[in-house]
Structures are given as structure tokens and as C-alpha cells.
Amino acid sequence: MPQLKPGARLRSAVCDTEIMVVAAPAAETELTCGGTLMLDISEERPAGGSPAGDASEGTQLGKRYVNEAADLEVLCTKPGKGSLGAGGSPLQLKEAKPLPASD
Fold first, then answer.
1. Which of these, 17, 47, 73, 91, could form a disulfide with 22 (CB 3.0-4.6 Å)?
2. What is the pLDDT along the chain (103 residues), one digit of tens a residue?
3. Integer Rg of the chain from CA
4. How far is CA 24 from the centre of its chain?
């Protein structure tokens, strides 16, 4: 997989998930969905794939996912059944920042 860059669009090889890279780390990182490497958006998904049992929590439309170091952030543009991962670790749902009180 080539170096990740902000704006890159990827799709899962085993489910309907599609993402867009918002922030990418300087080091090369392999993104996975459902336990399988993700494909460029222009590549066709192979037939008959399904997410691995330990990577089947799914993705949610419009949600952002980050890695533990917070140097990788992706936006889900199409939900699916597979879970996202990077470098062998699962990506976590990014929490919304609380708005300041307007007292």
C-alpha cells in the first residue's frame, strides 16, 4: 500500500465500508477493515469476502476514527460490517469535543 495522504479514499475488501483519510502519520501504515487490507477506491472488491470474527464491529456513517497515537484520522463515508484497524491495532471512534458553556 502506498504512503497514506490526507484526502485519499479507500474501500474495504470484505464489506461496504468506504473511508477518506483526514490526517495521516509520517510513517507508512497499513489500514485494514474486517481484518483485511483496504483497497484504493478505484479498485474492485473481490467476491465472497467477509469480515473476520474479531474485526466485525462495523463502521458508522459520518464518524471519525483515530489510532491510539492520534496521528491517523479517517472519516467513514459509507458504513459496513467490518471494523477499522491500522498497524495491527483497532481504530477507535473519535469522541466529540464538548462545547464551552455559555453561562
1. 73
2. 567 899 999 999 999 999 999 999 988 899 999 999 999 999 998 888 888 888 888 999 999 999 998 899 999 999 999 999 998 899 999 988 888 887 6
3. 14
4. 11
100 vs 21: CA distance, rounded Å = 28
Contact at 8 Å (CB) between 29 and 35?
A: no
Contact 26, 63 (CB under 8 A): no
Q: What angle do CA 81, 16, 32 make, to 5 degrees?
A: 70
**pTM: predicted TM-score of the whole model, two decimal places:** 0.88
77 φ, ψ to 5°? -100, -15
Q: Do residues 67 and 22 make contact, with C-beta atoms less than 8 angstroms apart?
A: no
